[in-house]
Amino acid sequence: MLRRPVLIACLLSACLQTVSCSADPQQSAQGDQLDKRVRQFLDSRSGTWRDMNVPEEDGKTLHDLILKHRYTRALEIGTSTGHSGIWMAWALAKTGGKLITIEIDEQRHKEAVANFREAGLADYVDARLADAHELVPKLPGPIDFVFADADKEWSQNYMKAVLPKMTVGGCYVTHNVSDRMWRRWGWVAEYIDFLKKQPNLETTFDTAGGGMSISYKRK
Fold this sequence. Notes:
Elements: H1 4-44, H2 56-69, E1 73-77, H3 83-95, E2 98-103, H4 106-118, E3 125-129, H5 132-135, E4 143-148, H6 155-162, E5 166-175, H7 186-196, E6 201-206, E7 212-217
Parallel strand pairs: 1-2, 1-4, 2-3, 4-5
Antiparallel strand pairs: 5-7, 6-7
């Protein structure tokens, strides 16, 4: 015969497992439905993303970074028509987070909003039509994930504005940056030099797709 404390512990464990099992199927079904809808949307648009959107390889990398570290408070500087935002919002839907994305061009902004809606991700995106030069410094923290893909010559300024608001362990990704392409554009060399001088950043480079610097904030 089980002693009373052991019996109570066993009954409590059984109850918790029952509650967990009864809740999981519905949540899993909703997640599966969203995954199916997003995949269908991306498949339907495969090879058609233009107008300064990222290639699929980079979208997948952004998605995987958010999922791996369970980021929930994401910022995108430069929405274009929403390809990268869809990949990030898809991951944030799984972590319980949300994306703020900024675009200065009204037509691209409208297309992005329509794409977020069609992909089933509108609830996970706060799409703003604004000048990032003005809005980014005003945004409150904390922020744990950033993807910068706007006017490249302003890259250092964007990071300077956001870095103090980022959580330790947060990730800042800048598009079109690689240690292999620094000779092609002057701003890349300057930006890489800037990254290396930041004492609280640990930076690596992803050379797939359009190339990206991936910087983690350390203590």
